[in-house]
Amino acid sequence: MNTIGTTVLGYPRIGPARELKRALEAYWAGTGTEDELLATGGQLREQTWTALRDAGLGSIPSGTFSHYDQVLDTAVLFGALPERFTRLGLSPLDTYFAAARGVPDAPALEMTKWFDTNYHYLVPELGPDSRFTLTGTATVDEVREARALGITPRPVLLGPVTFLLLAKPDTPGFRPLDLLDELLPAYAELLRQLRAEGVEWVQLDEPAFAADRSTPELNALTRAYHVLAKQADRPKLLVAGYFGGLGRALGVLARSPIDALAVDLVTDESFVDAVAAEGALRDKEVLAGVVDGRNVWRTDPDRALVRARRLLDTAARVGVSTSCSLLHVPYDVAAEPRLDPRLRGWLAFARQKVDEVVLLGRALAGADVDLTPAREAVADRARATEPTDPAVRTRIAGLTEKDAIRPPYAQRVLAQSTALDLPALPTTTIGSFPQTGDVRRARAAHRAGRLRDEEYRTAMRAEIERVVRLQENLGLDVLVHGEPERNDMVQYFAEQLAGFAATEHGWVQSYGSRCVRPPILFGDVSRPEPMTVEWARYAQSLTGRPVKGMLTGPVTILAWSFVRDDQPLGDTARQVALAIRDEVADLETAGIRIVQVDEPALRELLPLRAAGHEAYFGWAVHAFRLATSGVADSTQIHTHMCYSEFGEVLPAIDALDADVTSIEAARSKMEVLADLTGAGFARGVGPGVYDIHSPRVPDSGEVTGLVRTALAAVPAGRLWINPDCGLKTRRYAEVEPALRHLVAAARQLRGEAR
Ligand SMILES: Nc1nc2c(c(=O)[nH]1)N[C@@H](CNc1ccc(C(=O)N[C@@H](CCC(=O)N[C@@H](CCC(=O)N[C@@H](CCC(=O)O)C(=O)O)C(=O)O)C(=O)O)cc1)CN2
Ligand SMILES: [Zn+2]
Fold it and tell me: Which residues does 5-methyltetrahydropteroyltri-L-glutamate bind (predicted)?
């Protein structure tokens, strides 16, 4: 086989029924063995490979499986784990999990967003002393596994330049990219070994080049592929650029001695023009990524073929693939019998996308294939009227600028301090309390019809009361109801909003064993009924202290859903914002004096290239303000952000105009505060003082230290004391002492300030 022809750049790995999640969690809990975990992985790989083969794919990827994360896998493959993990004397598997999850003496690697997706990777730590040797055997082992099934796979690796660009320096001022010449021989050795196993093609992913890159970074890309191509006994090299157009990297890769290039022709539809005009691709195979790897709509075959055919005169050969790995979509639409049949006909999950690739590949090659069903599905969606709601359209058309503007902060702050009467350094939490087994079981029983509505309501009320009493006992100032009724902070709202559909099995990996079921936003959005008011009102009825209402913001709801692609995202955001605005108003009417509107995904949706930033900030900030500007001055609006490097969005955070912003900060030792202040931010701020991503419980001295650092950047009158994020993934055994220490630190510093 000399050409790739048709392929997918990657595939889901958590298992169609989340088999890997269960095996991992059993292993971590000590209720499952290593052999059981490894066997589960083996079965999942076999299922995937044979399904892809049977579907008729030209080239089948291996290496798309992972026990936790593909970036961590790459660090392990090349022996680049920090010494704090390797010196523990654990088995290879436990060393790997120590890096992923941390152990008491060795905090985990940092976790952060994988480009603009809701997947999170582990950040390699590299320094001047880092050395690379090919130590991992997983790549070669998987090739042997596949070959035993009669399949010669195409191993997928993270490319060397993106790997280094994703790493963080373990020494200030060090640039991991300077390690390129150290790293390349290890990649070259792996290529040699793979060729010796009979591998014909290797895929190297370089998604970092979908973002703006400097000349030295582009030079590193040039150098990397000239060096790797020189390896005498090597498979053919396919480089994959995805999550957007390649910009200047297109020319660099076209002129490099690689054998094939995969391009994303979905994210930026104009990128096909640049590819078609690139003269240096004449000797290469180009894989036209025309099937969207990140969204769930069926591909329009004619539009896809127009794009792919435009490359026929540019490249030596043109194949068809997905725009990126299918890691970001669920397995199979066929597992969703309860979806509305008409909507289901418009959808393609991973399994269906493989069929789309095969079909388009045949059509491109001139085979006589029947495109009618694909055309009919797309036409049916285009002609459907259900997604349009005239009432929503009218309301949007009637909006004016003042609907997204509140009176000046100085005026609001006065009204709020009278209404709330909070102490200095008020303490609060971010919303969720631990989702206990009981709570999850009650929800599962309710969903299955084994628990009646009224029984479920009673169970949730009991949990809310328990959480309110706990917070009173701990001495927190602003309480929350704890979110026990929410399966997920986006899905919960989507299930109650018109315009969304929910799946039953549409799980997508978010990190490690954690998954989400992104809802499908298919039509105009509106709110038939209040969504959270009953729970908030009940919680407030139990206590004299203020209970914070808890909502998810429009940007985050979009970021964590599969969105419609038939109108600009900003238009959809405005509709979601109005639904949230109605909920905020109803909470206010119900006597809730503080409402938090979470926007943890504000950074995630930021376009990878600076050219798109201004337009994004425009609609994203407007949507948040539209959602939150309908309240009285005395109603305090909070927002919350986490899981990100905030640098580039600080001006936008300021522009949200929230009265109080809580922001993840514990792990970075409050660094973000100086940046916020530097960006002119002068409203309330609650930097996280408790890292909730780790089971570690900070003592009150540690919390006091963090608050003191914060007080150097923010005056006491504007500083709030809270954890980094919600507590839903933690256990009460950790949460109770941690919050006790948090309250103690606040009290001590209040005393000192007096
Ligand atoms: N959408 C989203 N994205 C996000 C976050 C987030 O909170 N939501 N947080 C950040 C980090 N990402 C995260 C993603 C997932 C989870 C998480 O905890 N996921 C849960 C599932 C949450 C859920 O939907 N739970 C449902 C369904 C739970 C379930 O699996 N039920 C069982 C049966 C229940 C039982 O008996 O235990 C089943 O269906 O088989 C519920 O509680 O109702 C998990 O993987 O375990 C946490 C953080 C960034 N991105
Ligand atoms: Zn958070």
Answer: 18-21, 113, 514-515, 560, 604
